[in-house]
Amino acid sequence: MRTLLVAFSFIALAVQAGDFRAGAATSNITPELGSSINGGFQDGKAAYIHDELHARCLALDDGKTKLVFVVADSCVIGRGIFDQAKKMVNEATGLPVENMMMSATHSHSCGTLQAVGQSEPSPMYQRFVARRIADGVRCALNNLAPAKIGHGSASVPHQVFNRRWKMKPGTIPPTPLGVTTDQVKTNPGINNPNLVEPAGPTDPEVCFISVQGVDGKPLALLANYSLHYVGGVGPGHISADYFGAFAVKVGQLLGAGPEFVGIMSNGTSGDINNIDFRGGQEKQTPYRRIQIVANDVAQAVVAAVKNVKHEDSVPLAVAQKEITLGLRIPTKDEVEKAREVMKKSKLFPRMETMEQVYARETVLLADFPKEVSAPLQIVKIGDLHVSAIPAEVFVEIGLELKKRHSPTFTISLANAYHGYLPTPEHHALGGYETWRARSSCLEVDASTKILAGLEELFEKLK
User: Fold this and answer.
1) Residue 165 domain-assigned?
2) What Cα–Cα distance (Å) separates residue 66 from each residue in 124, 188, 236, 426?
3) What domain range is 342 assigned to?
4) Are 210 and 296 in the same domain?
5) C-alpha angle with apex 379: 250 to 251, nearest 5 degrees?
């Protein structure tokens, strides 16, 4: 593997400041050419590096409590990698593991770090990324210096669309698992004549945390938007998608120096994407739509930052707990039937059709435990709460949390990965996100249990 370097954010010391300190850094996690790219039903291979991948790190310190945010360019990252990185940081610095919130962006054009679809991770790349994340966190901690912090939000409604649609009766085909009761179709096709209406809302809010030096110089900005990803990259391209493009653009618009670290985290976007299925978007060349979305979101955030009051004394707190969630495990009969379907592939062990792909998922799920432990976490920064959920969270869940606990936002794919998190109501509607697979196997009531667990943490942080 070629040598990859850590890029630092050198934060200037201030002459006068309160107790609050901040530090930021980036760490390069770009994989080798020829390595696996996940995010699809077929495995991809990295042939070209369009833009480097990073773990973007922000450390905060109020004089009593230190916290760290990490957002890494990856489709999904399993708990083992995050736990390994946290352990390395803890051993080197003493920072408690529960004081680190780590998440994946969910870009579908990154190196594979967890087995999903037909992509398998390289253990060498997994170890490499764990170390790079730990290095980035340590650099951010080393860069801690007097700073000011504030938070705010902007609205960008025209770049988010609910991708689950109610269709005209009789127009939804059976699922790859043979289910014929689905009432919604995910990604139904642009201008499909059978469209009726979206099956849910969107969340147009872009929440952000802004960090400045005591002289007002931009040092870091962590944003959160409920958009799955954008896509539209070249074949075999490694790219951080709009998450990386935003990180660059927001720094440019703020007039920040090279030490600035921009960060975009994935909000509650399990059922949200950037496709207007009513046909209101022009077709774009590769990467053009990524740049359009990144620019629109960055401009809205930069305009909102101007109205944010930055303070040099803000209390920090964190709360975390584990909850047990059941998994939807197939029966022995379902597994036997799935094995027969798999045998039909002419390219065995690679699956060709969607029926075969989901048959393989059924067989693999048979070896999963009946329950998993899922980490829930909330970081409190002044009056702002940031929740972490280890799944692809449906937008309805994030909106409910905002309704109950404003100001707040949720970072998805955080600290572990347990697949999609639909609400029980959406499970009843069916659709791709509910089809049983390793990327969708949590029990039907998982979101209800997660919300209850988060409420306990909110109460603890009062």
Assistant:
1) no
2) 30, 45, 39, 38
3) 330-365
4) yes
5) 10
